Amino acid sequence: MKPTRTLALFLGALLAAVPALAQTYILATPDSTLNSDGWALSAANMSGFRAAITNPLYFGASGTVHTSITIQDLSTITAPSLAGVNGFIEPWWNNSVSAPFLATIRTAFLGGMDLWLLEDDTSHNGLGTALGIVQSGANGSVSNGTAPFFSGPFGTATNTGTFGNFAQFDEATILALHGTVIGRNAAGQVTAVYWPKGAYAPGSGALILFSDVDMISNANGNPYSPNLNTNGILALDTTAKLVQAVPEPGTTALLGLGAVLLFVRRRFRRSA
Question: Are residues 16 and 115 in the same domain?
Answer without folding.
Answer: no
